[in-house]
Amino acid sequence: MDREQAYQLAKSRFSNKNLFKHVLAVEAVMRRLARHFGESEEKWGLTGLLHDLDYEETAQTPEKHTLVTEVLLQPYELPGEIIHAIKCHNNMADRSSLMDRALYAADPITGLIVAAALMHPEKKLKSVNPEFVLHRFKEKSFARGANREQIMTCTDMGLTLEEFTAFALEAMQDIDKNLGL
User: Fold this and answer.
1) Burial code of 137-163, b = ≥16 C-beta within 10 A, e = fewer?
2) Check: CATH 2.40.30 for 3-179?
């Protein structure tokens, strides 16, 4: 499966445009992390783009989230490490690889960054800096859905919260037009 096939598959699976933007954001963050770690940007990007394919379908049954995606992706014969990482982000498998840990931390930080951008007076990703996001990170009532503990697992990749936030923000700023921010 190449990026265009993954993009079309993901686009077809979301009726909610914000969910589609979310997977684009996670893809961008995963690609940036892959570049930092000297890993395959294509593989890590596909993992981010495909990680929530079943989200709308399993919203009422979260214990099935990622398991339906695994079935959906079987015909594409993707590397097992992609499927494993996807399952890890919903705690359906142990996070044993760097890619597993990256996806687990990348998933929630995208929501935090979007919320921070929307709080900024200009409401643009390019206007936000890592310090602004980190300030919001400390506010427990801000973007409650962005699991802080999960974001903090960035240290399992050897990154500080500051480094991870900077990488994630940079990646999302690079695709700001696609995200509408």
Assistant:
1) beeeeebeebbeebbebbeebebebee
2) no
